[in-house]
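Human: We require from you a protein record containing the residue sequence and its fold in token form, and nothing else.

Assistant:
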Amino acid sequence: MKRKIFGLILMGTGILLVSLTLGNRILELNQRKALIAQTRAVITQRMEEAQAAEFTEDSFSFAEGPALLRIPSLNLEEAVCEGTAADTLKFSLGHMENTGDPGSAGNCVIAGHRNVVGGFFHDLPSIAIGDEVILEHGGRPLVYEVYQTLTVTPQDDSVLLSDGTGQLTLITCSSAVEPTHRFVVQARLKSEE
């Protein structure tokens, strides 16, 4: 009888832990979707204001607010906020501080998690040379074309350097399970859509 009760207690505890984990994950996904929708609304407003003033931006700073990163070939659309603190990367991609602004001659570096389920950059290794990566902030979307993918150690900061052209670098873990290296995508500013 004691074994049966103990077994029921263990099973109940397991069900409770799984329920809490799933509930937390659902909450995170809902917050992520809300951030994307909010960012989309702000971008639309900025675009309307820019068109009314006959102004289109060629670059922007994440200090002005979040942007949307889209990779059509991966069916990916995520919000990008300033910074790579744990709180930021929990709900969005993060622009690495002290790297270039989008559309500028520098190297704009964006980092994101690649968890087994639901990671922002889970499918990033499927990207191909020539694929487009689009950053939207208002005004004209900035379109980049992928020219290189590589895997580096976490200590290799050469991918953060700028070659003086408008670059975009996306960084995530090389493996969703055992993240010993970084998978890097590099793209150059192509044109505005």
The CA atoms of residues 74 and 124 lie 8 Å apart. The mean pLDDT is 82.
